[in-house]
Prior knowledge:
The protein folds into 3 domains: about 5-85; about 105-190 and about 285-310, Orthogonal Bundle (Cytochrome Bc1 Complex, Chain D, domain 2), CATH 1.10.760.10; about 195-275, Cytochrome c-like domain (Cytochrome Bc1 Complex, Chain D, domain 2, Orthogonal Bundle). The protein has 13 helices and 2 strands; from the N terminus they run ααββααααααααααα. It has helices at about 5-35, 40-45, 70-85, 100-125, 130-135, 135-150, 150-155, 180-185, 195-215, 220-235, 235-240, 265-275, 295-310, and strands spanning about 50-55, 60. Strands 1-2 form a two-stranded antiparallel ribbon. The two termini are about 50 Å apart. One heme C binds near residues 208, 251, 252 and 255.
Amino acid sequence: xxxxxxxxxxxxxxVLTLVSIAACGVLLYxxxxxxxxxxxQKDSGQATDTTGHVWDEDLAEYNNPLPRWxxxxxxxxxxxxxVYLVLYPGLGKLPGVLGWTSSGAYASEVKExxxxxxxxxxxxxxxxxxQVAADSQARAMGERLFLNHCAQxxxxxxxxxxGFPNLRDNDWLYGGEPGNIKESITNGRNGIMPPFGPxxxxxxxxxxxxxxxxxxxxxxxxxxxxxxxxxxxxxxxACHGLDAKGNQQIGAPNLTDAIWLxxxxxxxxxxxxxxxxxxxxxxxRMPSHKADLDEGxxxxxxxxxxxxxxxxxxxx
Length: 316
Ligand code: HEC
Ligand code: HEC
């Protein structure tokens, strides 16, 4: 309850809570002071106070206060709530004297669990990543980590989506050795394809797109592809290579393998070249996982991802 945007709501909740509890107490007190009307009083000629409901002709309900022991239970719940609000967070911004927080409780549970499982991590840390990938228990742990931390972008089967690479096809932007994969996970990746629309002009983009399609054996205008090759060698080869096979240092994809990160249709390629891909912002699109995954988990994830496309080395 410490994340209100302004102090006002903290006080508002505090006042509302305390007033409600006090009102309950007052109500109980007033009700408790009501005089009990015994049925005997009826015989003494006094009118009996009933709720006014009558069943089965003469079954009436006395309007009597609650029994004492019942009242005391209610008083106890009020005392309990006050003690609770002193100990635990609940009154606006007050943290409670025990300092308990739900995220703290969660964190300590995770810590406890990690401590239990630490020896297992230590074992896998000491092993070669490829050996870890061959261990079915390690793979199962890696898969669970993957579903928790990676599936939202790469898909639960690691098959990827437009802009999110497929991790099981043995085609790598940044290299598929365990070291490369570990680096991708640990520090994140942010490949940037600059926009070339302004440099090449509409026709130039069309020509170079035709050339890019021809590299993967896709149908394209022969003349445009020829013109495009010259442009490619001048403008694109610096990153994608003269042979267009890409550069894993900077994550420039191989443009000859008919595997597409964004798509191989003419329109998509034209869009990629014209507007560029990726953002030069501080947040990389493949986020760094240094902060939320320790080395043991990264080792298991690396082994899992490596195993997805090296199925022969991994006894399934
Ligand atoms: C927020 C989305 C997102 C999350 C979460 C994410 N990734 Fe990625 N990942 C990407 C994107 C986008 C790329 C491509 C980056 C680029 O092209 O520069 C990528 C690239 C990679 C690569 C490099 C692929 C190659 O071809 O070289 C690996 C390996 C990888 N991710 C593994 C993981 C693992 C393991 C996790 C979970 C710990 C994960 N990713 C979580 C978005 C994500
Ligand atoms: C500064 C380096 C650089 C230059 C120059 C460059 N590219 Fe790229 N290109 C990249 C990177 C990095 C990516 C991957 C972007 C990502 O991961 O989101 C990319 C992606 C692409 C893609 C998407 C491939 C796919 O699988 O969907 C195409 C197509 C492409 N580039 C074509 C070109 C062409 C054509 C040129 C020349 C006009 C060019 N690039 C110039 C770095 C570059």
